[in-house]
Specification:
The protein has 6 helices and 15 strands. A hairpin with a 4-residue loop joins strand 8 and strand 9. The strands form 3 sheets. The protein has a 6-stranded mixed β-sheet with strand order 1-2-3-15-7-4, with helices on one face. With about 260 residues, it is α+β, with helices and mostly antiparallel strands. It is globular. It starts with a strand and ends with a strand. Helices cover about 25% and strands about 25% of the residues. The chain has one domain: 4-Layer Sandwich (CNF1/YfiH-like putative cysteine hydrolases), CATH 3.60.140. Bound molecules: zinc ion.
Length: about 260
């Protein structure tokens, strides 16, 4: 049962994380305080919504799954290949660091990120007891953010990639993700012969398959346990924000993961 809706808030979980000693949730946009065009559980602070509503939406989300809102560790997501591993939460008076992947081995920390088409990738090593979350849009994908994250799990925590569970969450599907020449060129540079597996050409247009590209990168790193939600944000605007489908006039949904 991937969707849960105990009351107003509706969220998605991955089957492969069931029974693991972690908490995780991909929150839909339902059950929050924000009006249009951010309706309603917007947790993105950079799109014009009122900061206090955004904060309250995050608090509601954490409370929904029984995590202390003050346990949050989040970052300023900048489409980089930078990975942070943290041993503590981020107090409200401490500025966000810039990064696009966060990891922790501390049960008192809740990792949190924001999405609206880019790919959320959740990670868990049940042997070393590590959790992580990654933000991979097209730039992060061609920069190899997911590969860097797995590499950091190996060096910082001695994870064996064959133990790592990965989950690719709701994000823009290939059929909705037409890309321009600049993106095509970079995908071809990075993926060489494999690029044709992720670039779908139809008539004059080219579409980029972010899900398969990230799955490919995971498998190249030795992570073979990969669950795909298969949910397209742009196709399901009742549940998700889509920067592309809503032409930038929208919010961001939250993704949370923690040990418990
Ligand atoms: Zn779609």
């Amino acid at each position: 049962m991937p969707f849960h809706q105990p009351d107003l808030i509706r969220y998605y979980t991955f089957d492969s994380f069931e029974g693991e000693n972690i908490k995780h949730a991909v929150f839909t946009r339902r059950g929050g305080l924000s009006p249009e065009p951010w309706a309603s559980l917007n947790v993105g602070g950079l799109r014009g919504d009122d900061p206090d509503r955004v904060y309250q939406n995050r608090v509601r989300s954490f409370q929904e799954v029984g995590r202390d809102p003050d346990s949050v560790y989040d970052v300023w997501q900048v489409h980089s290949a930078d990975v942070i591993w943290t041993t503590g939460s981020r107090p409200a008076n401490v500025r966000h660091r810039k990064a696009d992947a966060i990891l922790t081995d501390r049960a008192e920390v809740t990792l949190f990120m924001r999405f609206g088409d880019c790919v959320p990738i959740l990670l868990h090593d049940p042997v070393k007891k590590i959790v992580g979350v990654v933000h991979a849009g097209w730039m992060g994908t061609v920069k190899g953010i997911i590969s860097e994250t797995v590499r950091t799990m190996q060096t910082a925590y001695r994870c064996d990639p064959s133990n790592i569970l990965a989950a690719i969450g709701p994000s823009i599907a290939v059929h909705h993700y037409e890309v321009g020449a600049e993106v095509v060129q970079q995908v071809e540079e990075v993926f060489a012969d494999d690029a044709k597996e992720f670039l779908v050409r139809k008539n004059e247009s080219t579409y980029f398959d972010l899900w398969r590209a990230n799955q490919h990168l995971l498998e190249n790193m030795g992570v073979n346990k990969v669950e795909l939600s298969g949910i397209c944000t742009a196709c399901n605007l009742d549940d998700w924000y889509s920067h592309r489908a809503e032409k930038g006039q929208t919010g961001r949904f939250g993704v949370l993961i923690s040990l418990r």
